[in-house]
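Justification of resources, computational component.

The compute hours requested in this renewal are based largely on the per-chain cost of generating structure records like the one below. Each record pairs the submitted sequence with a full structure-token output. That output is archived, and it is also reused by downstream analysis tasks.
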Amino acid sequence: MMKGKTVVLGVTGSIAAYKAAELASQLVQVGTRVEVIMTEAATQFISPLTFRNITGRPVVTRMFELASEYSVEHVALAEAADVVVIAPATANTIAKIAAGIADDMLSCTVLATKAPVIVAPAMDVNMYENQVTQENIAKLKARGFVMVGPGYGRLASGKMGLGRLVDISEIMAAISQVLGKSGDLHGKRIVVTAGGTQEPLDPVRCLTNRSSGKMGYAIAEAARDRGAEVVLVTAPTALPRPYGIDVVQVTTAQDMYEAVQKAVGKADALIMAAAVADYRPKKMAESKIKREKADKLVLELERTPDILGEVRGNFLRVGFAAESEELVANAKEKLRKKQLDLIVANDVSAIGAETNSVVLIDRTGSIDELPTLPKREVADRILDKVASLLSS
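The structure output for this chain reads:
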């Protein structure tokens, strides 16, 4: 979604200005053209030369800079932008934009552009919590500006509180989501499950599996970036909460069954990437099971709900089959038995890895064997198929 787009990056006078260099670098790496506008205060924290070297483009620092290609038509950047990103955004810049003041190149560009504007605040906690700043932020939100952050943590003043610039990954996710709003899944509601469920044995122990949740999270983020409204029903993972996605945290297979049943009411597609336990202890011990009490421990297990088999509705149904043998044959049988529209088959060796090698089998029997790819790219290949099936 980002490749070939023009991002106007506004950098203002915050101690967090140095982090904007990493944002510019990541944007360049994914194929965007980055045009940097720096306020005069920003140049006191980081040199324009840094951004020029990163982006390969001239950096605009003054309204009337005769050496700039934008010196005569100062709205040229506003018209060229696919998205304007202000990171970091100080309280002063937010106040000027909220009031419609255009006394420097950045505020003038924001006032003149019809592109979406993303604002990532960074300031002292007292400045952020000040009523005036909160009113200004509320005004921008009401006008359709996208606010990202701020984050909580230690600030330059030594205080702890809200005011930190959020992680660059979160700003990148916001940009990707904004640019993808008109994607091929625009207007669709996609429910995705992820992670490995945990079935308690006692208050300490549980039965679970090695699923990292990476595949499900990649699908959820890719669907978000293609314009979909996404609900992610996730078992416990070590992954950060994805930006711009409605996340429902669950633990057991029963929890996931109930959450999915609730989420698919208005869904266009359900993608079950979670590794759901097939069995659970029939009875959970009320206290921790002690090693000394018996030489052997016999567990009586019972089946968990079959989410794909039992949840009904008028939506596309996509399942996963992690197999250790007879990959295609077992996947075809699961596709038939659960009446799926699409199944994604992969070897169990992919669990926890950064890459995946999958076979896509649809309801017509068509088989598409993909090479080993990063999980985010696999996610997009899966969604290509989902988008095609939804359109047909």
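The chain has a mean pLDDT of 90. The chain is about 30% helix and 25% strand.
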